[in-house]
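# nightly structure sweep
# worker-07 picked up a monomer target from the shared queue
# config: single-sequence mode, recycle default, output format = structure tokens
# input follows
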Amino acid sequence: MNYTQRELFLITLKQQFTDIYTTSKAGQDTSELRLRAQGFVHAGEILELCSRTEVQQLLEQVHQEVFGCSTLQRKPKEFDRRQQALRLGDYDYFDEPAWSRIKR
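# output follows
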């Protein structure tokens, strides 16, 4: 197959988003992957290979594929888990670093 630079960029970005979300879903640190993707997106914008809107749409698409819900649908679940842990006195929930609880 002969891909244009733009197509290759978007395929690679989709894989980076997939790696971030599957790593997050596994409960592992995604900070390095996220920084790499941020730099990649920035370069893509400078080279006019993508727009902010396209990146956001791709991010949402991959999130839906990995988690089965949108990013907005997933955020309240984390809030609910934290509130439930507080109600039940489940302080083990807070032993896990906050950055890893939030990124799931």
